[in-house]
Amino acid sequence: LILHSSPLPLYCCKTVRKMKCRINPGNNENCFVPISEIIAVEETEFNKKQRNIGRWQKMAKLHAFTVHYVKKARNHRWRCSAATFWCVDEHLCNQWTQALKELLEMQKSRPKQLLVYINPFGGKRQGKRIYEQKVAPLFSLASISTDVVVTEHANHAKDNLFEVNIYKYDGVVCVGGDGMFSEVMHGLIGRMQKDSGIDQNNPKASLVQCNIRIGIIPAGSTDCICYSTVGISDPVTSALHIIVGDCQPLDVSSVHHNDTFLKYSVSLLGYGFYGDILKDSEKKRWMGPMRYDYSGFKTFLSHHYYEGTIAYQPAKHTHGSPRDKVSCRTGCYICKQSEKQLAEQNKEHGLKKEEGEEEWKVIKGKFLAINAVNMSCACPRSPKGLSPAAHLADGSADLILVRKCSRFDFLRYLVRHTNQDDQFDFPFVDVYRVKCFQFTSKLSEDNESNVMDVGKKRFGQFCRDHPACCCNIVNSTWNCDGETLDSSAIEVRVHCQLMKLFARGIEEDCKDEAGHSQSSIEQLL
Length: 525
Ligand SMILES: CCCCCCCCCCCCC/C=C/[C@@H](O)[C@H](COP(=O)(O)O)NC(C)=O
Ligand SMILES: Nc1ncnc2c1ncn2[C@@H]1O[C@H](COP(=O)(O)OP(=O)(O)O)[C@@H](O)[C@H]1O
Ligand SMILES: [Ca+2]
Prior knowledge:
This protein is α+β, with helices and mostly antiparallel strands.
């Protein structure tokens, strides 16, 4: 461990009793742990049974302390491991304990007080058990105090965040899925805007950043936000990222309809395929996470497509492209550069002028799916995600348009989310990196009088001569981070790094990311 330079010998034995950590028995080699990855230091009662080194048997009294630290395992998984050090000199032992505790005190980004919301009905309904058994003991070991709210109804957490004194907390933790995260995020961002007198209904408003970090303990059905920002959906790993005080900024998209605020989104805004899956699966909540497989299959067979018009402004401030072969990783350079670039542009031109001057690109067509993603949307079902090269904090979203195609081609597209092949390499799939976009369905263009003025003008010229078409006469629904939106015509804008998570992005060094073998169905396709 870190105690090599001790003037007197300190002996170390790894112990697994307290935290039930798995370690390799007989693995007594040195390991180096940065202070930033120490979870806690505790004085330890020296147990006679631990005296397994012959010459120490005769000693009358031994003094010991235990260092609990993060052990990095495969696939971005973190575990809590422990090492106990002992020696005969009580003073030396105390000095070490004291010195280590002081070093931990100096880690200023670590949270001391957290507000925790648990959705007891998310995913497999294990949220409460997961928190109590896996997370609370770690928080208590790390001397983090918590106020815990087990939610009693939808929107409980969101409403509560408008009432409590949020400023006394170093962070808010949500135990649940993407929907639960979304609720907590709306509470926090909404509260920040309210306290700063900013009108969320103004789509052009410059929103106030939220510096109270959110931690996600995955206990939902998809857990895409956790997976895409940590690299794994694992409650213990997430709890450890919270304890060490990690910080990952995140882009947030605001969604408006007719100057009315609808929702924020951080992962997927999906119309068509993913909207239809969500709408159908909500009726099958009793099935748990399986509902997405059932509804996914049903939606795939129904093969609905929707006609509409999209207008977007390309994200010119960022160097990245959705077709890049490199992905966003811990400390991402592209995210840092893009943030700087955006800040400079805003200082020079002012947001309104700049947006007004830039050209809008307009695309109309029949789509099986329209997906706007602020992050890769990697999840256990799709380890590389809907847009593998999307960035967590570059102030842009990837807009993926899947045009009407055969069922077979759509299946080939879907299967590429699960293997190493490029899902954008199809003639019916287009992808753009954007900073804002608007969508209007054919139906609302024809029937609604309340389409945004600016949109109406822009879309009008394309729709005037359009002949009656044979596509669906109903609209799809927008899937916004796992929640449905009531309106199909929307206006979306990416707010660069509006909030922060207790995470560090996906670490580069992963031990076994590759090694994906092709299944027979993939070979066939
Ligand atoms: C041959 C079959 C191939 C299947 C390919 C599947 C690709 C799956 C990609 C899933 C991307 C999901 C993006 C995340 C969405 C979540 O916000 C949302 C809500 O998640 P929650 O239930 O709150 O955890 N889940 C869904 C399925 O809409
Ligand atoms: N106590 C509760 N009862 C019913 N619904 C709740 C409760 N707490 C939270 N919710 C809502 O449940 C929805 C889904 O929660 P989530 O944790 O994302 O689970 P899942 O991943 O299974 O969808 C969220 O929209 C959230 O607002
Ligand atoms: Ca982004």
